[in-house]
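Re: beginner question about structure tokens

> Can someone show what the tokenized structure looks like for a real chain? I only ever see the sequence side.

Sure, here's an example I had lying around. Input first:
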Amino acid sequence: MSSFNCRFCNTTLTQTVVDLGASPLANSYIAIDKTQDAEPFFSLHAFVCDECFLVQVPPMAPREDIFDSEYAYFSSYSASVLKHAREYVDHMVERFQFDTGHQVIEIASNDGYLLKNFKERGVPVLGIEPCANVAAVAVEAGIPSRVQFFGVETARQLVGDGLTADLLIGNNVLAHVPNINDFVAGIKIVLSATGIVTIEFPHLMKMLEFNYYDTIYHEHYSYLSLYSVEKIFAHHGLTIFDVDEIRPQGGSLRIYARHAEDQSQPVSVRVGELRAREIEGGVNSVQRYSKFSEQVHRTKRDLLRFLIDAKESKKTVVAYGAPAKGNTLLNFCGVGTDLIEYTVDVSPHKQNHLLPGTRIPIHAPQKIAETKPDYVLILPWNIKDEIISQMSEIKGLGSRFVVPLPNVEVVA
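And the corresponding structure tokens:
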């Protein structure tokens, strides 16, 4: 691979965090009638910048190929995601008094699952969503949406149309942008003078601590800490004034930011406290990242050992879910239908397809009741409680749930 420079500070990257080999695009599910077609694989190698300590993977495929008109992820199919969205809106309305006189804009608004909660309160909303098929679902539900990638150009168009954001939302999107400077510069442009931006992203420190290597895939260009995001935001004239540590994705951060020149929101002590904990945990130390690869390979061996032992003991193993993270895990571990017979998913957009790379078939959840497997491997481990509750009848079938990370664990 040719030299790769940091997408924020342009430093040449040489320090490996983990090399996961080659993997297909994690959300490119294979239609049954396309099984004979060639499937591209791309290097999946994470580096850390030894200047700003932004963890990142090189851009291997154009974003237009990743976030295309057949994008398979729809937020509304997860009960926990919907609950999180409702609670977020309640919190923002209560804390900042957003009402009918304010404009809310969400970047990467998906199928409108979050904005509908503001709309029900009469708050004007607009979604910015690059995937046309997903945005169409939002529009059908009455959520105005523009099919665009967000950055400086889109921000200027919005301002030219008389739109600025009193609240700008970006949940699980900052990691998805190949040009992070363009994205954050766009936030600066479209944010109203006293506007607030909230951004949620999986916390890098949780990934390092709990071996969550499966969150590394090609549409996640960056892996974020408060330490690195503060530097990026400050460079573009934005100040992070508060931060919440939240549960989604195995542990995420929600940052609150404003214009640096806007002093209406004082900086919370939580910002300094978390920054100090990150530094103590080694977020700005190359040595901390060198240990991660060792942890990842150990958890890979543990999973393979479990699956091989189950196979040799004549036990059947299937999976639950078809998340992008599961595709990273299965491809890195080299697990196919020889060890996992099939998986199931509640999304009809994924059913009757094959997982990318491994070609494991995806069925509707009732398939588990029909086949009565010995073990069900939960690929979206971040919502394991939701899945176990929904599939409570599994216990009556004699099946047991298994979680692959942070360590292989039989949980029921």
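Each token stands for a local structural state, so reading them left to right follows the chain. The chain has a mean pLDDT of 93.
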